[in-house]
Write a structure and sequence with these properties.
By secondary structure, this protein is an alpha+beta fold. It folds into 3 domains: 170 residues, Beta Barrel (At1g16640 B3 domain), CATH 2.40.330.10; 110 residues, no CATH class; 115 residues, Restriction Endonuclease (3-Layer(aba) Sandwich), CATH 3.40.91. 41% of the residues lie in helices and 17% in strands. Strand 4 and strand 5 form a beta hairpin.
Length: 458
């Protein structure tokens, strides 16, 4: 369900997404593959629209396909259907298209949705989203469609609304069921919060039940939950089949869910205290409305801080998980050591003194930088490189191929989760400067551990 604490940082696309959530009876969300976007950018692409899996094609969301009349009765059947789609982002006023869902049986179950406006797909980054809302009005059915760029603030809102995790590909949702589920989720906490306010102990309740843990503590909770779930005793990367996937699961799924739970509670308590105060009083509805109006600037600031809190937490959290994995794998490192020009890389392996010594082995030393999201931030990391080996680890899906090539030209290696290495949603495949975390451990770290001193500064 949506977290409106993020809305002050957003614009028209967030409004469109929330409006669609309110008026659609069913919503389909699809993470777009490279082929789902490239048709809108290049004229020579075979795929002319968005691929739709047959399970979703035949699941009742789309109108039923009909067999197309063909001049050659011996030709393989073509099944298709036309329907109306509305694209609010395609122009100053919404653009209506005659869209086609078509299955060429000569290619098996392969089905594509064509007749789409290229302008809303052509500039999207990898792992962006298509959202289709089915709208029923006086017996007529239309489909209102949006695209959400994976690097936008709206992508975070979308993930919040539909509980979209890092491995999400495609699914259908019932907005009413999502709303009811969210209501049921918070009802018990709301009752406890009301009781605490009436009893004059909301300050104690906030401390005991709604205080956001420190970033390092939340990261520890997430790792422990992962280890328990997997039956592991440590995060040793040499003993985990896919250590990069483990980092992605911990940071993008488990810890994110924990963070959402604590933030929802923290903001709820803060809002009650802001509007009603800490002391229980008899208050009328009109008084509550007056207080809401009077405290509106403070409420806006509270809501805005929630989005900022999410961003600040993510980067530090990923560093904590990398640090835990290095420690559990007995990989020597120094953290946040100042090097030339006051630069402070996340990790130096095995140490700054080893990197700067005059021995032949110094060439095996490396900088490991951890970024949950890259965008243009990799250029900051590149300035730390000089003549050093620089590896940049991330769980980010939305890095365009040309940016990966730019990193290669500067000698920057990317270290990513195993699931992303050949993913059709991302653009990492085929780049020589991209390693999975498993490959990084086996081909870069393991061969050098015997030459690295075991001293580690934590």
């Amino acid at each position: 369900m949506m977290d409106n604490t993020q809305l002050p940082m957003m614009g028209r696309d967030a409004d469109l997404l929330n409006e669609l959530f309110k008026k659609a009876d069913r919503i389909l969300v699809k993470k777009l593959s490279k082929n789902d976007r490239d048709w809108a950018r290049y004229n020579n692409k075979h795929q002319g629209g968005v691929y739709i899996p047959y399970e979703n094609r035949d699941g009742g969301f789309f109108p039923t396909l009909e067999q197309m009349n063909r001049a050659d009765p011996t030709a393989k059947p073509i099944w298709h259907v036309h329907f109306q789609t509305i694209w609010p982002q395609a122009g100053p006023v919404p653009v209506t298209k005659k869209t086609r869902l078509v299955n060429y049986t000569s290619k098996g179950e392969e089905t594509h949705m064509t007749g789409l406006p290229p302008s809303v797909f052509s500039e999207l980054l990898p792992a962006s989203f298509l959202i289709m809302g089915r709208i029923q009005d006086d017996g007529e059915t239309a489909y209102e469609c949006l695209t959400i760029d994976s690097a936008s603030e709206e992508a975070a809102l979308l993930a919040e609304m539909f509980d979209i995790g890092p491995d999400f590909l495609i699914d259908e949702f019932n907005p009413k069921e999502i709303t009811q589920s969210e209501h049921d989720r918070v009802l018990d906490f709301a009752e406890q919060l009301i009781a605490a306010w009436h009893d004059g102990r909301i300050d104690l309740f906030a401390r005991d039940h709604a205080a956001m843990p420190a970033t390092i503590d939340l990261a520890n909770l997430a790792r422990q939950e992962y280890l328990t779930k997997q039956g592991l005793t440590s995060l040793n990367p040499f003993e985990i089949d896919a250590p990069g996937d483990a980092l992605r699961d911990i940071s993008r799924s488990i810890e994110w869910e924990l963070f959402r739970k604590y933030q929802r509670r923290e903001r709820a308590v803060a809002l009650v205290r802001l509007v009603l105060g800490d002391e229980p009083v008899n208050i009328s509805l009109s008084d509550i409305i007056r207080r809401l109006v009077d405290t509106l600037p403070a409420i806006d600031a509270l809501m805005l801080s929630a989005s900022q809190q999410r961003k600040a937490r993510a980067g530090y959290s990923y560093e904590h998980h990398i640090e835990a994995m290095l420690s559990d794998g007995a990989i020597p490192f120094e953290k946040q050591v100042i090097i030339a020009a006051k630069k402070r890389p996340d990790f130096i392996l095995p140490s700054l003194s080893f990197m700067e010594n005059e021995t032949h082995e110094k060439k095996t030393a490396l900088i490991l930088s951890a970024k949950t999201t890259l965008r243009e931030r990799w250029k900051q990391v590149e300035r730390e490189k000089a003549d050093r080996n620089l590896y940049l680890t991330t769980v980010d899906e939305n890095i365009a191929g040309n940016a990966i090539e730019d990193m290669a030209s500067f000698g920057v290696w990317l270290v990513i989760p195993e699931a992303l290495k050949d993913s059709k949603m991302a653009e990492y495949k085929g780049h020589d400067n991209v390693l999975s975390f498993r490959e990084f451990c086996d081909s870069v770290l393991a061969p050098n551990l015997g030459d690295w001193p075991a001293t580690t500064l934590l």
